[in-house]
Design brief:
By secondary structure, this protein is α/β, with parallel strands linked by helices. The chain folds into two domains: about 160 residues, Rossmann fold; about 70 residues, no CATH class. About 30% of the residues lie in helices and about 25% in strands. It contains nine helices and ten strands. The protein has a six-stranded mixed sheet with strand order 6-7-8-3-9-10, with helices on both faces. It has a four-stranded antiparallel sheet with strand order 2-1-4-5, with helices on one face.
């Protein structure tokens, strides 16, 4: 069984492909939520997946993470076939994911939440011993808190954070351990313009070896933090290209933004 690299020991070397999907399909009865998805994401690549509601974006994420097993096709993570693997095995191989709805311990502090995330993917996760002040995971948690710009709120209860700060905290949790690919599911949803700017700065500041795929309805955010874009429509891939190509594509404008977009 493969163990996660202990927190703090993040490799800076990336090569090959992080994710390869070949003909991935997910059926719910007679309904194809996604159909024949073929997609390659390089190690360290930052990709946006865009599309209107019902396009199949979140179902795609659920298949990649193991929340859903695909009806057909194969999923390879860093060269390994994980199509039938449970979610925790994919996590051990460096996959992380955030959700549309915040999943946090509201009664604990920011520091406690991040420490628990680091502890949860470490070899000592089942120990009942209280951590010492010299615990390396406490230091790692502080590094992640700083990476998402929450150091001034380290000892504040999560329930007292703004919604935008809670979304920032979720990114810190996703960075625990040794992530190599992170799936962000609409991280800008519900954020104010100032909070969106903070989110962009955080995503742009992530270490270069950590790739990510972001689902986002806010095209201004998505196109600023991605180097490649996949457009989905009715459960299939509609177009792929650079942010500039997608932004200037007439068919994309008509489908995604409406005929009145100039």
């Amino acid at each position: 069984m493969t163990e996660t690299v202990p927190a703090g020991r993040l490799s800076s070397v990336s090569s090959g492909n992080a994710l390869e999907l070949r003909g991935v399909t997910k059926m719910f009865g007679a309904l194809a939520a996604i159909s024949d998805i073929t997609l390659t994401v390089r190690s360290g690549e930052r990709r946006a997946v865009l599309g209107s509601n019902g396009a199949g974006k979140t179902t795609l994420f659920n298949c990649v993470t193991g929340d859903f097993l695909p009806t057909g096709g194969t999923i390879r993570l860093f060269g390994e076939d994980v199509t039938r693997f449970p979610a925790y095995e994919r996590i051990r191989r460096g996959l992380r994911r955030t959700y549309q709805i915040s999943l946090l311990f509201n009664g604990l502090t920011v520091a406690d939440n991040v420490y628990l995330a680091c502890r949860g993917v470490s070899r000592g996760r089942f120990s009942f011993l209280r951590p010492r002040e010299s615990d390396a995971l406490i230091a790692r948690a502080d590094e992640l808190i700083a990476a998402v710009h929450l150091q001034d709120w380290r000892d504040i209860s999560v329930a007292n954070l703004s919604y935008g700060q809670q979304r920032q905290l979720e990114i810190a949790l996703a960075l625990a351990g040794a992530p190599r690919l992170i799936l962000f599911d609409e991280p800008a949803a519900g954020l104010s313009p100032t909070e969106r700017s903070e989110l962009i700065a955080i995503l742009q500041g992530l270490p270069g070896h950590i790739g990510y795929i972001i689902i986002e309805h806010d095209m201004d955010v998505a196109l600023r933090v991605a180097e490649s874009v996949t457009m989905m429509h009715n459960g299939t891939i509609f177009k792929e290209g650079t942010p500039e190509e997608i932004e200037n594509d007439q068919e994309v404008q008509e489908l995604y933004l409406g005929d009145g977009h100039a």
